[in-house]
Amino acid sequence: MALQVENKASGSLDSGISASATSLTLKAGEGAEFPSASGDNYFYVTLQTAGGAWEVVKVTAKVSNTFTIERNVDSSTGAAQAFSADDIVSLRYCASVISDIVDELNDHADDHDSRFFTETEHINTSVGAADAGKPIKLDSGGFIDDSMINEAGINHSNITDDESEKHR
To answer: What is the overall mean pLDDT for the chain?
Structure first.
C-alpha cells in the first residue's frame, strides 16, 4: 500500500459518526483538500472533538467527501469513539505515518544496484594478501596501486606509486 500525504488538509464532519462507524462524510467540497485513497493508496486523519478528544483513523477509500475508514489505528484513545457534526477532520503526522515510512524503508533496505562496490563483495582490506575473488585490494594506507587490482582487462599502465596518483 502507498501512504498518501498532503499539506494543510482539513475539514469537518457533515454529520456525527458512532464508535463503530466505518465511514465518515465531510461538509460539501472539503474532500478535495485530502489526497486520493483507493486501491493501494491510503492516508491517516485525526478526528477531534471541540473538547479536545481525538482518534486517528486510516482512510482506505475516498469518494468525493465520503471516506471509508479503519478505526483507532494509532491506539490513540484505547477505543474508537463517537464524533459529532462539525468535529474536526485533519491530516496530521502521527505515529502510524512514521511507522509506515520506516517499514517501507526497511522493506527496501537490501535493494541496491549490484554495480556498486561493497567492501565485503569487492574490496579486500587484508594488507598484502592477494584475493583473486575480489577485484580491488587496499594497502595499509587505504590506497590502491597497480599490483592490487585483480580484475582482468584493466590497463595498469596509468597507475603509479606517486602519492598524487593513489586513490582512496
So the answer is: 79
Query: Which CATH architecture does the domain made up of 2-107 adopt?
Result: Beta Barrel (2.40)
Work out the number of other CB atoms within 10 angstroms of the CB of residue 41: 16
- Longest Cα–Cα distance of the chain, Å, equals 79
Q: Enter the DSSP assignment of 121.
A: H
More confident call, 74 vs 130: 74
Q: What is the mean pLDDT of residues 62-84?
A: 89
C-alpha distances in Å from residue 159, one per residue of 40, 125, 149, 167: 53, 19, 10, 10
Domain boundaries, the chain: 2-107, 115-159
Sequence-separated (6 or more) residues with CB below 8 Å from residue 7? none
**DSSP H or E segment with residue 102:** helix 95-107
Q: Which residues contact residue 27 at a Cβ distance below 8 angstroms, ignoring those fewer than 6 apart?
A: 11, 12, 13, 14, 65
* DSSP summary character for residue 30: G
N-term to C-term CA, the chain:
42
Please give the average per-residue pLDDT across 87-113, as a whole number: 81
